[in-house]
Amino acid sequence: MIRLVLGGRMPKIQIETVREAQARIAPYIRRTPFIPFDFLSLATGKELWLKCESLQRTGSFKIRGAANFILSQLAQAKKCGVVAASAGNHAQAVASMAKALGIRSTIVMPTITPPIKVQNTRRWGADVELVGDVYDDSFEHAMTLAKTKGFLFIHPFADPLVIAGQGTIGLELAESNDFSDIEAVAIGVGGGGLSTGIAAVLHELHPKVKIYGVVARNAPSAWKSFHKKSLVSEPVSFTLAEGVAVKRPNEQMLGYMQEYLDDMIALSEESIANAIAVLTEQGKLVVEGAGALPVAAIIEGLIPEKKVALILSGGNIDIPALSHVLQRGLVEQGRMVRLMISVSDRPGGLNAVTDVLASQRANIMQIFHQRSSIHTKMDEAEIEVDLETRGPDHTKEITAALTGRGFRVKCD
Amino acid sequence: MIRLVLGGRMPKIQIETVREAQARIAPYIRRTPFIPFDFLSLATGKELWLKCESLQRTGSFKIRGAANFILSQLAQAKKCGVVAASAGNHAQAVASMAKALGIRSTIVMPTITPPIKVQNTRRWGADVELVGDVYDDSFEHAMTLAKTKGFLFIHPFADPLVIAGQGTIGLELAESNDFSDIEAVAIGVGGGGLSTGIAAVLHELHPKVKIYGVVARNAPSAWKSFHKKSLVSEPVSFTLAEGVAVKRPNEQMLGYMQEYLDDMIALSEESIANAIAVLTEQGKLVVEGAGALPVAAIIEGLIPEKKVALILSGGNIDIPALSHVLQRGLVEQGRMVRLMISVSDRPGGLNAVTDVLASQRANIMQIFHQRSSIHTKMDEAEIEVDLETRGPDHTKEITAALTGRGFRVKCD
Q1: Residues B146 and B171 placed together within one structural domain of the fold
Q2: Same domain, yes or no: A111 and A172
Q3: Which of A222, A254, B8, B181 gets the highest tally of CB atoms within 10 A of its CB?
Q4: Is B406 helix (H, G, I), strand (E, B) or coil?
Q5: How many helices (H) and strands (E) does chain A have?
Q6: Residue A8 lies in a domain
Q7: Buried b (16+ CB within 10 A) or exposed e, A349-388
Q8: CA–CA separation, A338 vs A360, rounded Å?
Q9: Rounded CA gap, B392 and B368, in Å?
Q10: B279 and B309: one domain?
Q11: Which domain range does residue B211 map to?
Q12: Is the CB of residue A236 less than 8 Å away from at least one CB of chain B?
């Protein structure tokens, strides 16, 4: 269970506190690029702009909130040290700010956290404690450390100073000339600190701009709660957008979402994977699943406005996950295919096939030659080959060339 | 053979022409981000900055030169149309500028150009002609089209207007506050337009800044020519930096390189692959091989200065190539391993192995079970399994668990 740090009813998010945050954190954060996404604009007939928090220090927007929180209570933080629970972006953000300010930091991470994330957090000098099988247990342990050791606890989202820090993205957008006629902004929603922080600022400065929150369908609690206007718990399935996977929204954050977000959209894993691949191939940006949600919403045609700003919240995607997504994209585009080729089971059968593949300039990634498959006749062997091709037309040429040499070919 | 477009001795590159270019092309190009690379700075004890031309329109710096060339001769370009030969970044740059200005463009590409690059060029409305087995033949055909059809020919580098266009990156650097105490700049070198354009500007404005040119060792002609101070032809082997693979430098461009570059460095494919992987995983940027050369030079410790600007010239890497590089990186980091496991050749052997793998939370990517391998005893079968692990320590744990259950295990 996530405990509420904010007590009672949530106060309105004041733009003045966001402005104060902006001045406070300026030396420690990067004003991230806001750039047009030509490829997807051309493909959709829209005017799409990307706010690249993936290029923020520590690879996500989280450092804005962490910086504002720590700098607002600097004397206490220096005296007592800080503690946070996170397996991801909040961990790196807190550790890096603590290092920059010479503050002792303790980060509690679930025991199953990938070592690369533990390493990235230790790199900033944090004491990492691996406690708890799931995040909620790590969170409890961090709260206990705060109480018993006097560390200053930094909540990942449900804190006015943290929300004000994330809201500085809204100010940067509003200050950009390129933002002037933006009609809508799409933002991934996890705890809600990022989306409501930005939305509160834009409601004040650009009241006509529509704000869309985006979640993964495999972690739909915030989406369901938003539409039902009451708290709903939902189990979390596997999602590429693990950074926004929440079982049950924080009650007060849900209140903010209902006040500040115009609509909430939920997307499939296929959409999220596709958005990551499009950002990589066409946007030249490495973006994690949660960060790619707004782009996925555009590709699925779920945002009607023409000129839209998409918040790429972070770039901390695991390389194995990115690699899978890219390979899958190649399969879907027909640039990676599997052929089953039946050949006569005599010496030279495989050679005849590879001869055709070589002359067609098809790149073999993997090949199996099997004699007693259930699909083969007695005098035949089956060759299963994974190929990189130049695309569907090339695949057709390869298949035709094989058929022309008398082989039976099936495309898997 | 590449014909010289510039006749006789090359005139000095004048900073005024670069300033004129900057004003001329401003509405058509993006002032690209210049951002610190925290991860590699921390790892090397340097202060590294990235100039992200990978985020430039069309994914590379090439549009700067193309824009300056076309805008300088706009009336003729509009009347006659333009032509260029390129399988890569120059093609997209010319096609996109022509589209923006309502000019007819013809791009000659080698017949073996990957369809994705043909598509990307046609997307901008260019007439693409696939002519020539190698680039030089495409180049000849484009020159012929220029003569017979009156198209305005746009050279990819050996032209003062093109060089001045690329030089605008030097002005953007010089105008940035963050550049003020930069000690060195590293730039990939192909034809030489980018490196000499930037270098000429910085020689004038920041004469103390050292300029390093970087090439791939598998395409070493410019590097050898630079150090021998005379033209050397060298065959080109496979390189991830195909964007800068040149068999023989242009004589006059070599003159510029010798005038403007302080040193030239050549790098292995392993270094280039590693730099691409580091930029992806830690920099959150998708960069092509040629664009990653400066980062590779830093990782290899070949640039002694402390505060260094690295020009990421482009982001147009093929996704299959990127995917290979990332997978290879995982293997090198011990996050992807192949184990050979000998089990008794009785029902349940494989199940006993997968039981251990499941309890160790190792992710199976591929598995083979073979009974009559040359390595197996009569009563054994061999299981070859490719695993994703959390790293070398996790691999050791998995191996120990398998050995503990009585299996013989070899790590490949």
Answers
A1: no
A2: no
A3: A222
A4: coil
A5: 16, 14
A6: no
A7: beebbeebbeebebeeeebeeeeeeeebeeebbbbbbbbb
A8: 15
A9: 22
A10: yes
A11: 15-55+160-331
A12: no
Identify whether B5 is part of a domain: no
Count the residues in chain A.
412
Q: Say how far apart CA A347 and CA A371 lie, in whole Å.
A: 12
Q: Do B305 and B360 fall within a single domain?
A: no
What is the C-alpha to C-alpha distance for residues A272 and B247, in angstroms, rounded to an integer? 42
Chain A residues near residue B284 by CB distance under 8 angstroms: 54-55, 59, 285-287, 315-316
**Interchain contact, B284 vs A329, CB within 8 Å:** no
For the domain that residue A128 is a member of, what is the CATH number?
Answer: 3.40.50.1100
Residue that is last in its domain, among B123, B153, B183: B153
**Whether A322 and B280 lie within 8 Å, measured CB to CB:** yes
How far off is chain A from B208, nearest CA to CA, in Å? 28
Q: Could you tell me if B33 and B51 lie in one domain?
A: yes
Q: Which residues of A touch B330 (CB under 8 A)?
A: 319-320, 323
Together in a domain, B95 and B235? no
Digitized pLDDT (tens) for each residue of chain B, 412 residues in all: 333 445 456 688 899 999 999 999 999 999 999 999 999 999 999 999 999 999 999 999 999 999 999 999 999 999 999 999 998 899 999 999 999 999 999 999 998 787 778 888 998 999 999 998 888 899 999 999 999 999 999 999 999 999 999 999 999 999 999 999 999 999 999 999 999 999 999 999 999 999 999 999 999 999 999 999 999 999 999 999 988 988 899 999 999 999 999 999 999 999 999 999 999 999 999 999 999 999 999 999 999 999 999 999 999 999 999 999 999 988 888 889 999 999 887 888 889 899 999 998 888 888 988 876 666 777 888 899 999 888 888 899 999 999 999 899 988 7
Is the model's pTM score more than 0.95?
no
Residue B343 belongs to some domain of the structure: yes
For residue A7, being part of any structural domain is answered with no
Residue whose C-alpha is closest to residue A288's, from A310, A267, A318, A266: A318
Based on the fold, state whether residues A237 and A375 are members of the same structural domain. Answer: no
Domain-ending residue, one of B153, B185, B209: B153
Cβ distance of B388 and A320 shorter than 8 Å: yes
- Give the DSSP letter of residue B181: T
- Percent of residues in chain B assigned helix, strand, coil, to nearest 5: 45, 20, 35
ipTM: 0.91
Whether B330 and chain A come into contact, CB under 8 Å, resolves to yes
Q: How many domains does chain A have?
A: 3
Give yes or no for A394 touching B (CB within 8 A).
yes
**Interchain contact B360–A (C-beta under 8 A):** no
- Kindly state whether residues B181 and B292 are assigned to the same domain: yes
Residue from A118, A279, A312, A323 to probe the interface with B (highest B Cβ count within 10 Å): A323
